[in-house]
Structure formats: C-alpha cells, structure tokens
Amino acid sequence: MGWERELQLLERAIQRVNAEYDGFLYGTAGKPPVQSRRTVDEMIRRLSTAEAESSADRFRLTTLQGRYVALCERWERLQTEKEAGRRPGVRGGFARDSTHLTPSSPGPRSNAKAAKSVLKGKASPAEQDLFHRYVAARKARGEDVAGYDLDRFIEGLNRERAKLKERFGEVAVEFDVADRDGRIRLVARKKS
User: Which of 27-31, 70-74, 77-81 is predicted least confidently?
Assistant: First the structure.
C-alpha cells in the first residue's frame, strides 16, 4: 500500500477517534475509545519507522502526528474535567461564567441595568454575523453552546483587537471562523 493511501487512512482514523472521544466526553458513549486510540498509535509508529516516498509525505506524517498529539492532550484535559465532575470544555473560549449578570438575572437593579447597557446595540451586523457563525460551527462539532453570549464575545474581540494594535500598530483587521487542528477558532486577517 502506498504512502498516500496510508496517510489518508491515518487521517481518517484520527478523525474517527476524535469523534469517538467527543461522544465519550460529551455524553453519548459510555467509555473512552481506548482500542481506537491504540490503533492510531500503532499506525503512527509503523509509518514513523518506514521510509517515506517523498519529503512531502514525511511532512504530512509529521503534521498528522502533531495534530494527534494536540488532540491527545485535549482529550486528557477534558477527561480530567469530566472525572472531576465538571462539564468538559465549558471554561474555554468566550463562554459565560456563572457570575456574569444578564438582564433577567436577579440582583440589584442598578447592576442589572448596567449589565443590560454594556454592549447592547454596540455590536455591528458583521460582529453579530461572526458570533452566529462561530456558535453554529461549534454546535456542528457537537459542543455545548448554551453559555455563549454576544456581549462577552464582543468583549473578547475587542481585547484581541487591542492586543493586535499593541503588537502591530494601527492595522485594520477582520475576524473569521476557521477549523484549525480539529478546533473551531477565530482568526484575524488584515483588511484589504
């Protein structure tokens, strides 16, 4: 079997074990996919010791190995969260924490009014569209998106803009949703 075919099989196996881990971590499977993970480990070990047909094949294998290692670290972290009784992955990204007041949450009237007026109406249509695309992409990957909030999302974008401005000066950037290394991320691009 040629390297191209082997690498395609490896990539599909990594995608499959990632989906199985997501099923385990987010509740649709009862146990971790240990056997699938061993199969991928064995495929990587076998390909690592074989002579590549080209440097492009070796590069692709190295890229797949790096992606797999990152996924393994993610699975371990999320499994630790699950074993600790927390919902895996809830603390990442722009997810809202339980102390953030919403207009409907009980609390002092002045705080509720302040929380209501923070960013309402200040999100541009482009930012609202980006937020909806980001949430839809995460939901399509089977992630829980119940805690996502437009105001917190915009706050996060503004923080990122400030960091980019500090690093690169006055540069107009636009954000987009991308699937990088098996994760949904926001990427910044210079406006043209």
Answer: 27-31
pTM of the shown model: 0.47
Element (H, E) at 139: helix 125-140
- Phi, psi of 142, rounded to the nearest 5 degrees: 85, 15
Q: Are residues 115 and 53 in the same domain?
A: no
**Mean pLDDT of all residues in 173-190:** 81
List, in order, residues 6 or more apart from 37 with CB less than 8 Å away: 17, 72
* Total domains, the chain: 2
Among residues 60, 75, 74, 58, which one has the least CA distance to residue 24?
Answer: 75
For residue 153, the enclosing domain spans 109-190
Contact 147, 90 (CB under 8 A): yes
Strand-pairing partners, residue 189, are 174
**Inter-CA distances, 86 with 13, 43, 91, 111, 134, Å:** 28, 33, 10, 28, 23
| CB burial of residue 34 (10 Å; 0-12, 13-18, 19+) | exposed
